User: Fold this.
Amino acid sequence: MKTKINVNGITEKTSAKGKTYWVVNTNEGGLTCFEENIIEIVKQNLGKEITIEMKEANGFKNIRGLYPNEVTVIDEKFEAPVKKTITPTPNQSSSFSDTKNASIYASYAKDLIISGMPEDEAISLVKRLLGAFTPRSD
Assistant:
């Protein structure tokens, strides 16, 4: 369900199975988030209102996504925060095909272009974000 929240704070926690997750303190109470790529953008919006996709299950409220044009993402090439259209991808640990992923990334670039960003900048931003959210095997 699409929900506007005020981000008041974030606490990192570890589940009984050893998985890291975060509790986002909001005007809606504590919301859990299990996606690192989503929480990184939420962290950039501390003290601000953002629009999220929230799902309630088993008595918990979980952040499942962010809505484009409604989140501030800090881009290093600008000195100040700039509104950007972005929807982070969830961790692709399951067996999604590369073709499916390419389609998702193309859709993100298309959303950026529709919002007025030049095509080359949109593609570059999606590639950079993909690299930032892809686990490294160092």
Observations:
- The chain has two domains: 2-66, 72-133.
